Every structure is written in C-alpha cells, then in structure tokens.
Amino acid sequence: MTSLYALCDCNNFYASCERVFDPSLNGKPVVVLSNNDGCVIARSNEAKALGIQMGDPFFQIRNLVEHKQVHAFSSNYVLYGDMSDRVMQTLSQFTPHVEVYSIDECFLDLGDFYDIDLFSYAWTIKRTVTQWTGIPVSLGVAPTKALAKVANKLAKKSSKANGVLVLTEPYHIKKALEATKVEDVWGIGGQYAKFLKKHNIHTALDFANASENWVKKHMTVVGVRLLKELRGESCLELEEVTPAKKGICTSRSFGSKLTSFKDVEEATASYAAKCAKKLRSQKSCARLVTVFIQTNPFSEHDKQYYSSKTICMPVATNSDIELIHYATMALKAIFKPHYYYKKSGVIVTEIIPENQIQFDLLDTVDRQKHNSLMKVMDGLTDRFGKSKVQVAAQGLSKSWLLKSDYKSPCYTTKLEEIQIVYNQ
Amino acid sequence: MCSAKVIPINTHVLEQLDFEVLDSITLPLFGSYVSAGFPSPADDYLEDRINLQEYLVQNPTSTYMMRVRGNSMQDANIHDGDVLVIDKSLKPADGLPVVCFLDGEFTVKTFRKINNKAYLYPANPAYKPIEITEEMDMRVWGVVVWILHKPVKR
C-alpha cells in the first residue's frame, strides 16, 4: 500500500475571510490586527508587498490605514472560526479521513485514491472550496505529510503551479526538495536550521541526503522521522482526533492601561473562568495555575514590570470558583501598585482527564456540589449567552475589555450583522 | 415534577438490538410524562417537529444570508428588509435571482442569458437591465434560494 496525503492551506486566511464579505478589498492591501489592535497578525499579498511584517505594531502602519492605503481589521475570531469550519466541512466531502491541523490547514488522506487523476481531483477540491466558501486555497499532494507540506509551499509560490502541486514522481520530488530551503521544512526551527547550515545543509534535498545516524545523533528520533518522510517513507499518520491540550492559556491585553488591583483582578478572574470552561469542554482538570502580569513594553515613559506566579492546587480542578480563587491568590502575590498594567494572563498546566483525579484526604471542597454548579452555569451560558452568569470576582465594570476599533460584522453567525444587499 | 412507574416488559417479545445500531439511535423525547395514569395514545406516533433549517438550507456549508435594502427587485417578490438565503455552491443559470458584486456593492438581480450574452435584470420598471461585459468588474457571489419576507414590517 502506498500512502498519499494532501495538505490544503487557506491563502492568507484571515484577510481572505474579510474579503469574502467585502470583495472590494480584492487586490488591495489588507491586514488583520491581534486582539486589542496591538500588532499585525495577518497580511494579504499586497500588504506583504508593501513591506508590512508579521508582528509589526499597529502604530507603525496607522498612517497608511488612515490614508486608506491599507485596510486594517480587528481580529474577528467568530467569523474566522465559522469560515474555517465551512472550509473543513467542504474538504471532508472529498475523503472520509481528514486532520484539521490548524484554523487554516487541513491534511487529507488520499491513500485510496492512487488510481485516479490526482491533479484533476486536487483541482476539483480547490475549485469547490473556493466556490462554496469564497476562500482561496492551495493544495500540495505527496506520499508523506512532510512532502505534502513541501508541495503546498511550492504550489503557493510558483505561478506555474497556480495553487496545486502533485508530487508523486521521484524526479519531481527531488526537484521540489532542491527548491526548498532547509528552514522552510516542516518542523525545522530556527536553531536547527542554523545548525544544519553550519554543516553545509542548505536545502531540503541536502537534508534528505544526510545520513540517518548523523541526524539521529544531532536531532533525535524526531529528526529521523522527518528525514524518512522527506525520502517518501510515511511515518506521521493522520491525527483525526485532536489530543486534549497539554496546557491552556487565556491572556489578553487590556483595552486601557490599568493601575488598580481591582480592575486587574477582575480581568484575571475572567481569564481563569475561560480556562476552566475550556478544561470542562475537553473533560479534563488542571493541577497548576500560573498567573502573569506585565506593563506595556512599547511604552518608553512607563516604568516596566513583569512577573508571574505558579500555584499548585491541592486537587486538580476545572471549577470556575476554585481556579479564580487560586488565580487571585497568585495575582495578589505578584501585583505591585503604581504600575500601568497592559496585560495579564492565566495558564493552566498538568492537565489530566476528569476521571483520573487524585483526591486529597483532607480536601475541604465539596467537589460534587462544584460540579453540579458548573453544569448549571454552562447550561445557562448555552441558553442565554456568554457572561449572563458568572462568579462575582469577575466584576461587572469590564473596564479592562479589549479594544477592537476595526472589527467587521459577524456576517455568518449573527442575524443582526448579516451583509446588506443594495437594490437601488 | 413527575413520577415514574416501572412498566413490566415481557422480555421474549423484544427484538434483539445489536449495540452498534444502538449507538447511533437518538431517542425521541416522549410527548407526555410517564405518570401513574393512562399512557398517552400519541406516544407511539411521535415524530420530529418540522425543521425549518433543514427545509430552507440544502447545503449548510455553502449557505449564507444577506438583508435587502432598496426596491429594484420588488416585482420579483424581493422587498426592502427581506432576508435572502443564498447558496454559493450553485452556478447561476438563466432566470435565477443572484447576488453579485458590482461596482463596489452587493446587489441582487435576475441572471439572464440571451444569445450568449449575460445580463442582470432588475424587476422594477424604474431600473434598466445591465449587460455584463468582459471589462466589467462583476462577480456572481451566490444564487438566491429563498426570500424570507415578513408580511407586516415591525
């Protein structure tokens, strides 16, 4: 049996989502900003051509935005999430086995499709996704996942491929590896790339030709797996079920700078509650909770401060009440007055399945009561919407809420915000 | 609150269900409470309520909604304030109402193909048909499959 994978990747996904509902943005530079409009997190090709970099702070391009040379959007994750879902569902029509790799990437197992004309099948996939969702995608097809990644990158870059590249012939695979820089290979990070270049390995082909022992010695078995994948031997299988997350982080920049403990406490409590909700939805509990706070590193005249504190909870939990309790405790330990805080966050780790909790003999918390309370709270949230019921520590003022001055409507999820068709 | 009563079942008249099948069965909610009284004669005839979403949306993945402003399509039953259900997976064909992007705006018109030429027809004598030419920046965005119209605007 020969393996065969396709990697389908949405082109400039966030920017493309904005364009679906405003086609006048086609051909124009579009950027999407991070939470709180802090920095650039997505760019259309036109924005890339203007030299705007990933992570550029917004104030650096504010001038271009105000003169309408660049169209900026606050991130609209509700819209992007729904559009991603539509893309993935469209893709799952073409094979029963898909792995949603990220919000805009998906692996398709085409192992049973060797006899068909892969090139035309790939084009059918591409055309269908674009027709159904309006999102342009690129496809790379190859015998292994790592090679599919290589094919996808080239499909996007080469104007001849125009978004679809099938790599099944050894000669084509060799040419593709030759044209791929080693730092662009899936899983090779900056440090490894530097190291490999020092040893005269510059392209993916150089790497594929390296000796297995040498790679094992310097890059562990992970490197060997990659080596084999690039040589066409499939080692990475499709992960159709996403494994439960090992750590969950909820952190945001505040809409404005905060100095009072109460405001930071409310924000932090809300992030803790978000973490608890995520834990419950994946049916797990966490043992460690970490809280961090920081001032604005971009501000030159403010005093700078960063600190974090981790607390090991007596029993792993996913209850809002308990997580907020310990997160607040951690915050109290690190909070210093007279600073302008810009961001705080809550990270939960040591995550275990709900049914494997080790109880403490001296535990004073009525866990059953907490559990049923959380169930009721989740039920009310599902019925009446977010933040209708919450733990009091989360506060009501929400003076820390995010800034999103350039947010597009939720075109596909809120009836009040659907696009208008003009009939004049 | 309602109380439940154990109803004795004669096990040998029950069909064997294999568990794989059982897994995929969703049980309908019974129409009446189980009570000590006489069971509702309608319980055996329970069906799902009519699902409007299923009726209006053939292909959920490619279906979107937009709201109408203006009256250029009033004679085609498309009125100001209506909600359009649009299927992007359908190709425009002669006579179908389509949403298209024309001169920087979304607009809804009837798509016509006459003698190999494509047109966008309004449905209001005050407006003229538009012939689609090569150099026009026109894209059909999707095909209108339903018009949701409220009889009385509130």
Automatic annotation (TrEMBL), chain A:
Show the InterPro entries listed in the entry.
DNA/RNA_pol_sf, DNA_pol_Y-fam_little_finger, DNA_polymerase-Y, DUF4113, Rev_trsase/Diguanyl_cyclase, UmuC
Q: Which UniProt keywords apply?
A: DNA damage, DNA repair, SOS mutagenesis, SOS response
**Superkingdom, taxonomy of origin:** Bacteria
Q: Where is the UmuC domain?
A: 5-189
Q: Does the keyword Transmembrane apply?
A: no
A Pfam family? IMS_C
Q: Name the protein family.
A: Belongs to the DNA polymerase type-Y family.
The protein, known as: Y-family DNA polymerase
Origin organism is Pontibacter ruber
From TrEMBL, chain B:
Specify the superkingdom.
Answer: Bacteria
According to UniProt, the name of this protein is LexA family protein
Coiled coil regions in record: none
Flavoprotein: is it a keyword of this entry? no
Keyword annotations of the record: Autocatalytic cleavage, DNA damage, DNA repair, Hydrolase, SOS response
Q: Identify the residues that the record assigns to the Peptidase S24/S26A/S26B/S26C domain, covering every copy.
A: 28-145
Give one Pfam family, short name only.
Answer: Peptidase_S24
